[in-house]
Amino acid sequence: MPDTGQYEESNTTNTGDRLFLTASVIGIAAISFGLGAFVVLAEVPPYQSLKNAWRAGTALWEQRTKYTDVERLDFWSPARTDEVGVTIHDQDKAQDGLTLYSSGDGPHAVLIDMDGNIVHEWRMPFSAIHDETSPIPNPQKDDFMHWHTAKMAPDGNLIVQYTAAGDTPYGYGMAKIDRNSKPVWKYLGTAHHDFSIADDGRVYALTQEFRFNTYPNRKQLRPPRLDDFAVILSPDGKEIKRVSILDALIKSNYANMVDFAPYFANEDILHTNTIQLIDDKTAANFAYGKTGDVVLSFRDLGIIAVLDMDAEKITWATRGPWLGQHDPDVLPNGEILLFDNQGQFADPDAGFSRILQIDPQTNAITWQYKGNADQKFDSNIRADQQRLPNGNTLITESSGGRLFEVTPDGEIVWEFHNPIRRDDPDNPGKKLVPVVSQAERISDARADLFRTTAPASNTGTSNAGEAQ
């Protein structure tokens, strides 16, 4: 007969061994977790390495889980209307010209006439210019990018900036492309948001990178941070000057302004979203900057600033009655026109955005436009505006996918809705519209370059008012 006593003793021993092993693993895991938490919270070495590894893993997980459907990117917003194309056009009051805009549905830009007909379209994916010199070794798919900004150079060619969703840095670079959507030059620095074109062809742009330096008496500026730089590109797209904007601010008389940053912004402290070159015309009546300086906008700090590119120092900065602002433009009279994204609280039914014109010496509002219950005006992020030669203002309401022109009295005399639509995967029966980050009315000699030729489009579509 088998020795059951010996079997029971062996079985009991094995069970005990397994329990001991399990308890040991749990104990080691608990001790490791406790030590890891202590290292991070007490900020003793190697806490930064552990923190960076955790953040990198979290970012990778979010990229692979939250950025899988194009329609769920923040390049798309719920459509507020079924109207598409040009819906208002007062020929007697609107500024005649062609309107250039880029759309969140992909890396392309459209040039339309005052009736919404497509005059020309440019389209070039980032994959067409990406190479091993790019600091982005594994870029997002082309469908997950768009041209945040597209501006027409004096020669009629286009300069564009690529922005990706679900990646950091999210600025992928810039390119100049000809009328046939072929690259003239490319700049694969991590250019983002905005740029300014000088009369001599140089380009003033913004780039970003992770930095690991620290600043005395500014412990909240912990590494790694996503920091911004102002760069100057030659007319053929070569970088010839690069200035750290945060360094320029910290060594200026306005360094204490970083102490007003909200808690969520310390890892992207400036979030610079605008760079405007001060030329001879704007410098003439602007008391806070000279020719060659640039005007910057720090969104989360609520700051408009002037950077001396030669001295590499912030020479003037101000905060005012705006929140989450974009696109401060120095006007010929020395005042500043800007898009106040979130600062309109007086009438919520009108939307939370407004356009402000301010006197920089007093921050007094000298002109403004805001919506009303019938014409709600609301763009939480992005957006811009342009003062036109006839005194009207062209406004880009990004989140609504809408462009419109208003008179000084606030009358809408031209309106255009992005015609692109897609089904909302989270709301059956509803539609999404791609954002329009930036637009400009072209009413000078550049418009004549396209009016003298037959309308052209890479898509073959003859009217931008046709929904897709």
What would CATH call the architecture?
7 Propeller
**Rounded radius of gyration (Å):** 26 Å
Structural class: alpha+beta
Give the domain tally: 1
Q: Span from first to last CA? A: 84 Å
How many DSSP helices? 5
Q: Examine the coordinates and then state which fold CATH places here, giving the name of the CATH topology.
A: Methylamine Dehydrogenase, Chain H
What overall geometry do the principal axes of the alpha carbons give? globular
Strand content: 25-35%
Q: What is the name of the CATH superfamily?
A: YVTN repeat-like/Quinoprotein amine dehydrogenase
**Highest-level CATH class:** Mainly Beta
Notes on the protein architecture:
- The structure is a single chain.
- With 468 residues, the chain is an alpha+beta fold.
- The chain has a 5-stranded antiparallel β-sheet, with no helix packed on it. Strands 5-4-3-28 form a 4-stranded antiparallel β-sheet. Strands 6-7-8-9 form a 4-stranded antiparallel β-sheet, with no helix packed on it.
- The longest helix is centred in the N-terminal third of the chain and has 39 residues, at 4-42.
- It has a single domain, classed as YVTN repeat-like/Quinoprotein amine dehydrogenase (Methylamine Dehydrogenase, Chain H, 7 Propeller), CATH 2.130.10.10.
- The chain starts with a helix and ends in a 17-residue tail after the last helix.
- The radius of gyration is 26 Å and the shape is globular.
- The protein has 5 helices and 28 strands.
